[in-house]
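In response to reviewer comment 3 from the previous cycle, which asked for concrete evidence that the modeling workflow produces usable outputs, we include below a single protein chain processed end to end. The sequence was submitted unchanged, and the resulting structure tokens are shown without manual editing.
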Amino acid sequence: MLKAEEEQDEPVVPIAAFSGRRGTLPLTTPEGPVQATLLHGKLRAVADEMPVARLLLEGSPAAVLGLATRLAADLPLLPPHAALAEAGRALARGEAPRARRRGPPDLAGAATVEEALLGAIGHLLEVMLHFAPRCRPEAGPEGVHQMRVGLRRLRSVLKVFRPAARCPALGEFDAGLKALADRLGPARDWDVFLRGLGAQVAEAMPGEKRIAALLKAAEAKRQAAYGALRVELDGPGFRRLVLAGLALLLQRPWRAVEAEEMPDRLAALEEPLPEFAAALLDKRWHKLCSEGEDIEDHSAEALHEVRLEAKRLRYAAELFAPLWPGKATRRFQKRLSALQEDLGIANDTAVARGLVASLGSSVPAWAIGAVEGFATARVAAARKHALGAWEDLMLAGPSWTRA
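The workflow returned the following structure tokens.
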């Protein structure tokens, strides 16, 4: 029985219930014994119901992961993005299940580098699992946006902790994330274009049929990008990627080093997190300052490099922000974010130009030229704002301190 959340002094009211069968089967796998328990049936609420199938695998990490990986090649097998009780609550209320994790990971409770790495990977895998089902064109842009942000944060985590945990499994997992990012990118780019620059051009030229033709072609490209993404997320590749992430958490492959290397590896993994974080942030801060020296004279290409360094620092600063809570950290993050966003307008403009150019002869050349003109007009103002944001960031300075 699934129960509603009520005040403690009020009666508990059932709002949904599961009915079905439960079967248990002992299995022998090459990696060892596994006990499989299958729960299948329906969740029922007053006004709705839905089919449910949950598979619980119990055994050693190697045996469970090995069996799950083989099953995932042919079956839609993924860790559930919501517990059965939460699925019942959402069904009864006619809404989507709530996310177990949102935003960046909170590393305030992590004492060592390894604890932080494990916590961050687990948190961001949960974020990706929650938003994967929402990556559909009819669901709006939020699913793709949040999944892409979560994926970027996860790749940043792997890069941040690579010096302490370098191993082949970590590199292979990152390569899988990059391949998924390549699928998410086009869907997100068309979302941004249609809701941003495309909408602005249409508003400025109401009733212009050539612009309408361009936007119609762009929407077709968006639908195709979402279709390709959906195939990827519903296929075995995404399932294997998630299981590879779980394997990192359960098996900690970065500890599988030669005996003579073990003392140094353990020392790196057990380093106090604040010391590790401050050293890394110092390095990225100095790199950003170096890239931005004499920024007022920078070419568009040089400003792009500043944007990339700002993005790398922003993800790391966001990750470690809970270690230095307070006004200074919030101010630094706000100013760094403003710089990256202002510099990002120029990048978005370049992306928009590439998108409309990809439409080719299917749309009037005049419409493509009009969009490119609008895009170019945004760059000058964005550059001015970016220079101001750079000055503000330099005045704020770093918010972290060494122990």
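The mean pLDDT is 92. We consider this sufficient to address the reviewer's concern, and the full set will be provided in the supplementary archive.
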